[in-house]
Write a structure and sequence with these properties.
Elements lengths: L5 H57 L3 H13 L3 E6 L4 E4 L15 H8 L4 E4 L10 E10 L2 E9 H52 L14 H49 L5 H32 L7 E5 H11 L1 H7 L2 E5 L6 E5 H18 L5 E9 L3 E7 L7 H4 L23 H11 L4 E5 L5 E9 L4
Parallel strand pairs: 7-9
Antiparallel strand pairs: 1-2, 1-5, 3-4, 4-5, 6-8, 8-12, 9-10, 10-12, 11-12
């Protein structure tokens, strides 16, 4: 399929717009200019008619009409117009040299022209070929009341006027041609300028599609295209971060799987080949069992995350006491807390707070948040768990620790799957980077959100909300 260039499309839009505007403007200007030009020619004839009428009146009173012949000659020579003086019966009495061949007794004028002049009006008409003369004429009648003369009529051939208009129209068409040519060039340059960022983004998208997530688009523009480029770069950064997280996850999960499998293989081999003393075999079997349970929990977390992200979460909602659920999860953490002498202070808004949701999944949320707080808390640290009643019949549960905190950059990705802020794995040797991702998916299934507030070196606070039960 032939590719339709965006530059060509934009040029077609620009040129169509220019052509329509020029056509409308040209047609309007041509109509206005033609009317103006014809009116101007009429005014010239009217002005000349005033002069001839004045000369005729003066000559008629003094009996000297020598100046009249001069005025008629000027009108005919310099204005390409002839003149006729007619009596009240419409008969030609005097005519300029151009009309000498016309028989004076012949009635040439229409009743409309003659009546207008007899009423003292200045009249004008454009005659067709054969209507008054063999040539189409612009006829202007000027009233004149001297003796038997009723008025004078000045006639100017329309082809001459139209020829002048045609010359001006030709100049206008030539000018419009060069304007259109200039518009074509400007349209092409504008289309290229507008389309260039899109072309760059398209090229960068192809590079990213081939697996190079380091590609970026540089567009120095404070408009929608600049925003698009910025969004594209942000998308590329997110893809690059996710791709790195997946690589890290594969490396981390391989390490997490290799360690228990190696341990299990070693103990089982020792028991089978007899190198392990019988009195220690029970201890070794317990270690193997613990490692299998650890692998089971890890695989279960991966399955849960996969189901959550495929929108396959099924909630078994009921009313339960969130305070009791918090206490139960704190008790489950006692062995882990005792290792580092970490204490948990729980502050409840009420003695009993009933919420509505899936108890098991909210328990998993609390387990992950409290477990992370215990994991990253320093020796003799304190963890604060607090419930606060909020508007719109909700309760806010927050978990605050005194750990190393989370940087502002890491906070953008802390809820993404496979992401671990401790990239060196010096502190978190057991995490897989999916615990907080599961927390977010479980809460989103409840229609709730989770937030994090933290500063490096000042601990972190995770908070989420739940709906209160109707009973509460």
């Amino acid at each position: 399929m032939k590719k339709d260039s965006i530059v060509r499309k934009q040029m077609m839009i620009y040129m169509t717009t220019i052509a329509v505007c020029i056509s409308l403007m040209g047609g309007t200007l041509a109509l206005v200019f033609t009317n103006h030009y014809m009116n101007e020619k009429k005014e010239e004839l009217v002005s000349q008619g005033e002069k001839i009428a004045a000369a005729f009146s003066k000559g008629y009173r003094t009996g000297n009409l020598s100046n009249l012949s001069y005025e008629l000659q000027v009108l005919e020579t310099y204005m390409d117009a002839g003149i006729m003086m007619v009596n009240r019966d419409g008969q030609v009495v005097i005519a300029s040299p151009e009309f000498n061949e016309i028989k004076y007794e012949k009635e040439l004028l229409s009743e409309t022209l003659l009546e207008g002049v007899l009423e003292g009006k200045v009249v004008s008409v454009q005659t067709k070929k054969g209507q008054l003369f063999d040539t189409p004429m612009l006829v202007v009648g000027y009233p004149l009341s001297e003796g038997q003369i009723a008025g004078l009529f000045m006639c100017r051939p329309l082809p001459q006027i139209q020829a002048s208009l045609l010359e001006m129209y030709q100049m206008g068409v030539i000018s419009l041609f060069f304007v259109s040519l200039l518009g074509l060039i400007v349209s092409y340059m504008t289309a290229k300028y507008v389309a260039l960022p899109v072309i760059r983004i398209n090229g960068a998208a192809k590079v990213i599609a081939n697996g190079n997530f380091e590609e970026r688009v540089i567009v120095n523009s404070n408009d929608e295209l600049g925003e698009l480029a910025e969004s594209f770069n942000h998308m590329a950064e997110s893809l690059q971060a996710h791709e790195k997280m997946q690589r890290d996850f594969i490396a981390n999960i391989s390490h997490d799987l290799r360690s228990p499998l190696t341990s299990m293989q070693g103990f089982l081999t020792a028991m089978l080949d007899g190198t392990a003393p019988p009195e220690k075999q029970e201890k070794y079997l317990k270690i193997v069992l613990e490692e299998t349970q650890r692998l089971s929990r890890m695989t279960q977390s991966i399955v849960e995350l996969s189901r959550a992200q495929s929108s396959a979460i099924l909630l078994e909602e009921s009313d339960f006491d969130i305070n009791g659920l918090i206490r139960m999860n704190i008790e489950m953490l006692e062995p882990q807390l005792a290792e580092k002498n970490v204490h948990i202070h729980a502050i409840y808004a009420e003695e009993e707070t009933l919420v509505h949701g899936d108890r098991d999944k909210i328990s998993r949320v609390l387990q992950n948040l409290l477990g992370n707080a215990a994991k990253f808390s320093p020796e003799n640290g304190i963890i604060e768990v607090e419930t606060t009643l909020k508007e719109k019949k909700k309760v806010l549960i927050s978990v605050k620790d005194e750990g190393p905190g989370i940087s502002a950059e890491d906070q953008k990705y802390v809820f993404d799957r496979f992401y671990k802020t401790d990239t060196t794995r010096n502190k978190d040797k057991t995490g897989s980077g999916i615990g907080l991702a599961i927390v977010r998916e479980f809460l989103q299934a409840h229609g709730e959100t989770i937030t994090v507030k933290s500063e490096e070196g000042k601990g972190a606070t995770f908070a989420f909300s739940l709906k209160l039960s109707e009973e509460d």
